[in-house]
Amino acid sequence: MGSKWTLFLPGFCVSVLFEIAATQISKDPQCDIWCTQHATCINMTHCSCDNGFASTSGKKYFNDILENCDDLTNDKDYKNIASHFESFLNTHNNPTTKNKTEIGNEATKLLQDLEEAILESSEEIQKLQKKSFLAFERQEINNCSLENVDTTLEAQNNSVTICCMDIIQSNTQGQHIVAFVSYNSLGTILNASFYKKTYEKKIDRIHLNSKVVSAAIKPWQSNSSLSVVLEFQHEQKKKEEERSLCVYWEKLIEEGGGWSTMNCNLIKSNETHTCCNCTHLSSFAVLMALYSQEEDFTLTVITYVGLSLSLLCLFLAALTFLLCPTIQNTSTSLHLQLSLCLFLAHLLFLIGIEQTKNQVLCSIIAGLLHYLYLAAFTWMLLEGLHLFLTARNLMVVNYSRVNQSLKKIMYPLGYGLPAVIVAISAASRADFYGSSSHCWLQVKKGFVWAFLGPICAVFSVNFAFFLLVLWTLQRKLSSLNNEVSTLQDIRLLTFKALAQLGILGCTWCLGILQIGPAASIMAYLFTIINSLQGVFIFLVYCLLSHQVQEQYKKWFLKIRQTKSESYTLSNNIVSGSTQTQTVRKFTVLLVAAHHYPSTT
């Protein structure tokens, strides 16, 4: 008997000391920040639930900040929770910075009360469900027949999956309750403005894209670990450039409450659903974040400087092709149309590629860029066809037949084929034109191949044309006694067209090859060559053309002659005016001498 009393005495003394401390020490403000509601701080080391309340874990003294104190009377305002929830939704339609702390505190308390009411199967929850404010599923679990069996609950196309052993924990006796609730319009109040972005990278835009859901278990030991798998259905389709964030509602001291990503990880995400894994129970949601993309300043400068030079050169080239009479033929017409298409495409690119604020305008710009660049490559295809037909008719030395055949098809093909491709693309997936970052084709589901596919086809066909041209020229080398000048013209034409094919075709091939370790080098090569297309076209087809050089000399001499004639005429006018004034002065002197003769 004495030994039993000896063992019991120390434990009894510790209990008495805690009881005395609980009665003598009131809530300490420094300790109150982590003690839950309806709990008292004990010696700044532990918390204890007030009279009429019990901790969720059943412990009398605890120091876990996630521990809650439940009302033992089992009627804690459940009769008012429905009206309280409706009032919360109606009052806080537009959260502002001033009342965010108030909303956060109220939401934290309200979510906790709703979870408890659902676990208790309160009639008030049934009322909210009938009014479509929320939907929930509740299951009672007595034991787990298999250790790895999972329990899945669904509400409003959202679901939660928890391992049965995590629900019953170490307590295999008695009944366990698990509940899952999905709120209809709570996300409009607890929106992305409550997200803590302290440790995140720069986010351009963020918004909540799911229902707010809650998962709860009774009884629950807050210090227990578990794995909660949540699957959300998106309110809106997820965009390609957006990133899904799995968040839970965290109780905060200053803000009252807010969304946090701590211990919540993304498993997978697609356009319509996001799957998350969290290691605790709470209220959860999915946020969609658009992170700012860091652009290479050097590439940006190269692009704008190069395209500006190209615009100037393309403008001069177009004027040359229009006004130079000695080069007016089918080949010049092809060069002119190519220059016009590239000029308009580059100009629209500089002006509209980043006009993403208006989604409709951005889609229109993306469609026009798609059409103009496809048209430019179609005219490249016609360049290759014209070169092939010219080489094939070398023996005839008569291009009228080639010109007539090509003129019939070049305009319908040059502008009609790109229009058909863009029309089919827009009719099938118009929403893939333009994104939140650039007014161009989106890459998802391979839609960008509506542009890359035709370009690769043009490059392949033109390459085949060039091989055939070279083969034809090689065959004709033995019969060139009387056609040397013609061959020289064809060689010059081949060189120019091959140079143009390299400028245009290889440029886009470099763009496709921006993968792997050499992606940065390819990006710089692509940007430099592509931005200077107009400069190379003006150089090859104007400055290196003997006929154009002669025409430039004539224009230059004519301008000088005009200036010289204007200068001579101006001098004559001035000289004539001086002589007239001299005659007038002389006449005045004669008249004066006649009226006033000398007295001598």
How would a textbook summarize the main sheet? 7 strands, antiparallel
Provide the helix percentage. 40-55%
Query: In angstroms, what separates the terminal alpha carbons?
Result: 172 Å
Radius of gyration from the alpha-carbon trace, in angstroms: 42 Å
What percentage of amino acids are in beta strands? 15-25%
Overall pLDDT, averaged?
Answer: 77
Tell me how many strands there are: 17
Shape: elongated
Extract low-pLDDT stretches: 1-27, 582-600
Kindly report the oligomeric state of this protein.
single chain
Number of helices: 15
Structural class from helices and strands? alpha+beta
Description:
The chain is of the alpha+beta class and 600 residues long. The protein has 15 helices and 17 strands. The strands form 4 sheets. Strands 6, 9, 10, 11, 13, 14 and 17 form a 7-stranded antiparallel beta sheet that branches. Strand 13 and strand 14 form a beta hairpin. Helix 3 packs parallel to helix 5 and helix 9 runs antiparallel to helix 10. The N terminus and C terminus are likely disordered.
